[in-house]
Design a protein that fits this description.
Layout: E1 5-9, H1 22-34, E2 39-41, H2 54-68, E3 75-77, H3 83-94, E4 101-105, H4 114-127, E5 132-136, H5 138-141, H6 147-153, E6 159-164, H7 169-178, E7 184-187, H8 193-198, E8 203-206, H9 213-224, E9 252-254, E10 257-259
Helix pairs in contact: 1-2, 3-4, 4-6, 6-7
């Protein structure tokens, strides 16, 4: 399994009554794969992971896997600030047939130091056999996972990469300079995908690709082929932070959900 190119942090569609919109989710998965997206991540930040119930999380992952039908890898979001609960959650998801891996972010709120983060992620990795993508997003968790800690974690056999959303290019450059070739560094920020790939990253877990999967996939394919200079002019605006609903970060609530617009 190769993690490369444009992945999508899937949104979770809801009906007006707050229940899952299952047909829309299935349609979204099909449209993503048809447009060239190479990785799907349900139940991450963009997918309302922090407000989904356990049953909803399970259902979203099962629907994503059924629609993907093995055509692309599916890594499900699984994050908790309690290490014991994070292990239990990961073990529960690992029993879902066909799931390719999990994406797990820094423990939030507790603000553990680097050793604390190492022990947290190691406990998860040792509890399951599935591949694990680390997710460094200090803007939401208030904790930064530094390169030296990532490199220690990369020595564990089932920690296969990281979605890097720190936005700190010096930190990302340091990680890329020392990470083993088998360790996948993916941008977690649409606007930084091309610079990170230029430094040795292998792809992006995108938010914008929910709405424009084709152009985003084409842009990432061109970048990985060192072909950015020949990219059609229509794709160049994608290098800017995306505008519109997906770029608004102040949530409002609807039917008890936290929406990113």
């Amino acid at each position: 399994m190769t993690l490369q190119g444009c992945g999508t942090a899937l949104v979770t569609p809801f009906l007006p009554d707050g229940s899952l919109d299952e047909p829309s989710l299935t349609s979204l998965v099909h449209s993503q794969i048809d447009a060239g997206v190479s990785l799907l991540v349900p139940c991450g930040t963009t997918g309302e992971a922090s407000t989904l119930t356990e049953h909803e999380t399970q259902r979203v992952i099962e629907l994503t896997l059924a629609a993907a039908a093995g055509r692309v890898p599916v890594f499900a979001g699984s994050t908790h600030n309690s290490t014991a609960q994070a292990v239990l959650n990961a073990q529960r998801l690992a029993r879902i047939p066909g799931l390719n891996g999990i994406l797990t972010a820094n423990p939030y709120y507790n603000r553990p130091n680097q050793e604390g983060q190492f022990q947290h992620f190691r406990a998860i990795a040792e509890a399951i056999d599935l591949p694990i993508l680390l997710y460094n997003i200090p803007s939401r968790t208030a904790t930064n996972l530094l390169p030296e800690t990532v490199l220690r974690l990369a020595e564990l056999p089932n920690i296969v990469g990281i979605k890097e959303s720190s936005g700190v290019m010096s930190q990302i450059t340091e990680l890329l300079s020392h990470a083993p070739s088998t360790f996948a560094v993916l941008s977690g920020d649409d606007a930084l995908a091309i610079p990170i790939i230029a430094l040795g990253g292998v792809g992006l877990v995108s938010v914008a690709s929910n709405a424009i999967p084709g152009p985003m996939s084409q842009m990432l394919t061109a970048a990985l082929a060192n072909d950015c200079a020949d990219r059609p002019p229509a794709q160049r605006p994608l290098l800017r932070p995306h505008a519109g609903p997906l770029h608004r970060t102040q949530p409002c609530t609807h039917q008890g959900r936290s929406w990113p617009y």
